[in-house]
What does this fold into?
Amino acid sequence: MFGTQRGLFLSRLRAVSAAVAPQATARPSLSTIAREWGRIGCLGFGGPPVHIALLRDLCVTRRRWIRDREFEDTVAAVNLLPGPASTQLAIACAHRLRGRTGALVGGAAFILPGLALILLLAAAFLAGDPPRWLRGAGAGAGAAVAAVAVRAGVDLIKPSWARAAPRRGPLLAYILLGAISAATVGPFLVLVLLACGVVSLALKRGTGLAAITPAPVALLLAAVASTGGLGALAWTAFKVGALSYGGGFVIIPLMQADAVTQHHWMTDGQFLNAVALGQVTPGPVVQTVAVVGYAAAGVGGGLLAALVAFSPSFLFVVVGANRFHALLANRAVRAFIDGAAPAALGAILGSAIPLALALSEPWQLAVLAAAATALLLLRRGVVATLVAAGGVGAAAALAGASLPG
It folds into this structure.
């Protein structure tokens, strides 16, 4: 009798636990992944925070495909990888549910809506004779980009600064080095980011700077000294996709010197337009590289740049997803990131200098001041601020204001 009652009690307890505890449901079909990841790709205005929130709501809260702890571990792991973290998270979640095929389907569905839209906008903005109001809208939105860079850098540095207390000296040194390099060394910024990571690794291992070999630096210098053409475009896109730390906005200093100064694919004004388009379209900010590719070689160049930039994200996840726990525990990886990531965050701040210097019209400086007030003091949204700046630019153009060439 007692045994029967005890068995009934345990059965009911298990039933209640099953109802309360989040349980992973049956894995979704590939068509479901394509539809849901595509929906996030269409609605993901606002960058990585929005993408992460949408993926959590889908995979953890509503569908219960992935447990909360596993999702958090995946977020932590992709933040240790170079490249666009929210894109890698979307690929990793799809990989968790349907393996390599799911990763390809989910990643493509997440990327393609924004990519198609940004290429259409690039065609309009980079046309030989776009309407005057459209040029003004681009000039207005582009004028606000330097303020967006400062906002992105400050927001990303705050958590690192809080975690580093009370030993903030090395962190500050890496941030300052990245900021100065972004404003001065142009296409060689990527070498500075890598060097900061290597220095951090050497110091934490206690091997000293003498243990750093110059061979990888020499190879990278040879790659940077590309002769131009599609090879140079592919190298620029590769830097964006595989060698950027600290979030999507670090692509700006990695691209600007290549696209404007070294290869002359774009003018300063067109590059500012490209950055603004990357912010106001849904999906990952890294899609900005497609505008650079379009300027260099048309639609084919835009597709090539996107393919090269996003390929490392797929490769990192497909090859390494099962090793994420080992990655989180690897001291060498963390030591490298402790140097490279703060330098990348500093580079975001430093990129504001050449972006501001690229402005050529007095009214653009007024738009920049207003955008800085809205973003840094009033804490308004980035997308809303850029749209408003574009509206001011369009009105200025229609009123007869001079526009940048």
